[in-house]
Write a structure and sequence with these properties.
Blueprint (H helix, E strand, L loop, with lengths): L17 E4 L2 E4 L20 H24 L7 H7 L28 H16 L3 H14 L14 H7 L8 H10 L15 H7 L3 H13 L5 H19 L5 H16 L5 H10 L6 H4 L10 H13 L4 H9 L5 H6 L12
Helix pairs in contact: 3-4, 3-7, 5-6, 7-8, 7-9, 8-9, 9-10, 9-13
């Protein structure tokens, strides 16, 4: 996400029983028994199909947060600068002990950013309020003001320019879509940033088994802050990919992606101009390489189709989850958001 709020400093460590060991903050107030079960163990005591489903859904959630947190290590950097800091491309960028920049130093090591914060807001809205956009609008407002107090936040660190503009538009809380449309039209219908696609996978996690509901929810939640059809197309494509992978994990990958491409274009219809339909197919095409994407291009690092393409790159990757993320964030640019969109990668290896 392109950040505009530089006044906060992430999840605070004040008033906690933390000690610093090496470069990691350890909460010493937590204790565990040797035989203590994981809170998620109960979910894996059913049949194999149920276990696989839960594994995929949790993998998507954890992948979101991990990709976001790992990507923060190189966010806003040029690819050449990343290579200077980590010259051995065969080695993983260390996490959470990466070299902090002035930007990433605003967060505690290992923390995720606004990308996953907003994903959590969306998950809450979908699971507690069935996708009420006014509820989501209010949650955004509270998060901007306070962050997640239970995580010792004191504001929505990393708030993007577009979201800030929309939330401050008159009438946002009464009619979020109208306010979002007005904010978009004030840019000459040019703004298509990545702040919706970074959080949209929550719609697929909740509604993977109801494609129509999932698409409707993805569109509505996207348009709450990002009205451009390119942003909508990005969200629909990501959610369709996740849903179809969960439903049919053994399907041929390129056939599945082709289905996603065509259904996305059909869903958008004439709202997506011909030039952007071609762009969409180019960015999601099988032949796209990381070099092609130029993810560190200063002028367009936050373009929604670049983030979408990063996710599809990960989807096609045959390397491990860690290796794929490492390859991606070594490109610099809006690396946390690109990493978050990579949460559904490695379809072939089933490593979500």
């Amino acid at each position: 996400m392109i950040a505009s709020n530089d006044t906060n400093h992430g999840h605070s460590t004040e008033d906690r029983s933390d000690v610093k060991i090496g470069e990691m903050n350890i909460n010493t107030s937590l204790t565990y028994r040797l035989d203590e079960s994981d809170l998620l163990d109960v979910l894996f005591t059913s049949n194999a199909n149920h276990m696989n489903l839960i594994d995929h859904l949790l993998g998507c959630a954890y992948g979101q947060a991990l990709g976001d947190a790992y990507g923060l290590s190189t966010e806003y950097q040029k690819r050449c600068a990343v290579a200077d800091t980590y010259p051995d491309a065969t080695q993983l960028i260390p996490f959470p002990n990466y070299v902090q920049s002035q930007h990433s130093g605003r967060w505690i090591r290992g923390d995720w950013t606004d990308d996953t914060d907003q994903w959590l807001l969306l998950m809450e809205t979908l699971s507690e309020h069935d996708g009420d956009v006014k509820i989501f609008a209010r949650k955004l407002n509270m998060w901007i003001r306070h962050g997640f107090p239970e995580l010792d936040d004191f504001g929505g660190l990393g708030l993007g320019v577009n979201v800030a503009k929309v939330v401050q538009t008159e009438g946002f809380y009464e009619n979020p879509w109208e306010a979002s449309r007005n904010a978009w039209e004030s840019t000459g219908r040019q703004a298509a940033p990545n702040g919706a696609v970074m959080r949209c996978s929550a719609s697929a996690v909740v509604h993977y088994n109801n494609i129509d509901k999932m698409k409707s929810t993805a569109i509505q939640m996207c348009q709450t802050t990002h009205f451009d059809p390119r942003c909508v197309a990005s969200c629909v494509a990501v959610c369709l990919a996740i849903a179809y992978i969960i439903q049919s994990p053994d399907d041929d990958l390129e056939s599945l992606i082709g289905r996603v491409q065509q259904e996305t274009l059909a869903t958008l219809g004439d709202a997506l101009l011909p030039i952007y339909r071609e762009e969409f197919l180019w960015y999601t095409g099988q032949d796209r390489t990381l070099d092609d994407l130029r993810l560190d291009d200063d002028k367009v690092i936050g373009y929604t189709f670049k983030c979408l393409a990063a996710g599809f790159y990960g989807l096609r990757s045959t390397r491990s989850f860690q290796e794929t993320l490492n390859d991606l964030i070594r490109q610099g640019g809006d690396a946390d958001t690109n990493g978050a969109s990579d949460s559904y990668n490695n379809h072939n290896n089933k490593k979500f």
